[in-house]
Fold each of these.
Amino acid sequence: MEDTFRHKGLRNKLVECLRLKGIRDEKVLLAINKVPRHLFLESSLINHAYQDKALPIGAGQTISQPYTVAVQSELLKVKPFEKVLEIGTGSGYQACVLLEMSARVYTIERQRELYLKAMSFLPQIGYNPQFFYGDGYLGLPTYGPFDKIIITAGAPEVPKALLEQLKIGGRLVAPIGDSQVQVMTVVERKGEDSFVTTHHGSFIFVPLLKGTE
Ligand code: SAH
């Protein structure tokens, strides 16, 4: 599990590419520059690790495209020590980017294989979010409320339980739409029953599914 000068150089290039695509938040760019994305991939895909592409991680799932990770991280407006809930641990890459931004990360995965893999791998490279196996539709009622919530799979609508677990003043970022295309959606909680929604472009995610497997 090496992180060589070559990998660091490729990461610098990736960051410059994200900058050109419109990512402005230096804290996001710095975090992406730190997380060794190649270590999240199986050996046959390592050479693609620093291209701006989604890639398979097994169990029919993908590690999100770096641009998508950057957009979601930027929209989340994470401040140090905030409690962030992530739905869809997958490879754990997005969780590491949030940890690099000094968030306290709680991450849920519904596929046991991916949950177990991330839970054993992330600590080996120095990242320690709180891992949960379960259905992200339900959130983590006993650990909330959260300052920020990020959903990394496409949902037909924002799950109600997650809005309930968002602090007043908090933000939720989620791709919302049908199975073909989703719109990046930000929901800000302004009061007990007051939510403001904004839209930030189209993306394609794997679906948010109910239950566990
Ligand atoms: N954040 C991930 C992206 C993974 S893709 C990364 O950085 O690699 C989306 C993930 O969401 C998949 O692993 C999928 O299994 C998971 N997922 C889908 N529906 C879910 C649900 N209801 N609860 C938790 N995880 C879910």
Amino acid sequence: MTMPPAIAIRHLVKRYAGSGGAEGKLALDDVSFDVPQGEIFGLLGPNGAGKSTLINILAGLVMKTAGSATIWGFDIDANSRNAKRSIGIVPQEIVFDPFFTPVEVLENQAGLYGVPRAQRRSAELLAAVHLSDKARAYARTLSGGMKRRLLVAKAMVHSPPVLVLDEPTAGVDVELRRQLWELVKRLNGEGVTVVLTTHYLEEAEQLCDRIAIINHGKLVANKPTHEFLEMAREKVVVLALDRDAAAAPDDPAFLKSELKGPRLVEITYDKDRSNAGEVLARVQGQGYGILDVTTREADLEDVFVSLTSERG
Ligand code: ADP
Ligand code: MG
């Protein structure tokens, strides 16, 4: 038996209200995907792609236009109370009352979720995010990094099985990013399913088991991270030939060979199995002279760019 997904999103559509009779922004356009239980799932996309809109629909902060979603099996409409209890959300913006202490922030949140006093674990959560020594300091005295960590603790007060972080490391320094990654990995190791949105490829690559890419409100890819990295193993050489080619020179060592002009050929190869020298030699072996060569390395960024430009 396969485990039911932690989150299931079906045909989700969000059109924000327009103003002055104009049609509003279509922020989500028929998005469907599952977040498997136990994974760290990355929702990757450029600014304005619709990531926060999707997260805010799950959080119950934005009304969807159409479609459905379940969290831990609970429909966000029909069973919104249980759906909300199953998810903890770390919002993109940091907002705290500056005069509350971390302990008070967590206790207030626990109260909001109706967690009985005996089951509260503020001290444990503060220890988990390395804030025990700041438990009774005013929130305004915390550094940006401490505030981010406090937000993670706050999202976990009701012990949800799913934790969602919306751009947890946007604009944070390298050290804090590393700390947040460690924290996310630790929580995931303890069994929490994690969804994070990011526009940093490296972050998704380092942290996520699976990456979904969203662009202009549409889901354009959804694969295990290693499959993206395999796509990124490709390398491209563009060769200017000394005469017109009737067809693109082909060879078993090439993954792809395409004529870009009568004398311009673009050849893709696997950089683990071949190299530019071999590609050139094979083209020359077919009787062509080569006048110019440019090479291009596909990295995750290229994969991302090609996926986000196709339907742009
Ligand atoms: P992301 O989080 O991926 O950067 P958002 O979900 O914040 O993207 O935004 C997606 C699109 O919806 C953007 O074009 C944005 O300008 C628009 N948008 C977001 N919030 C609102 C809103 N409250 N009203 C109107 N348009 C909005
Ligand atoms: Mg956002």
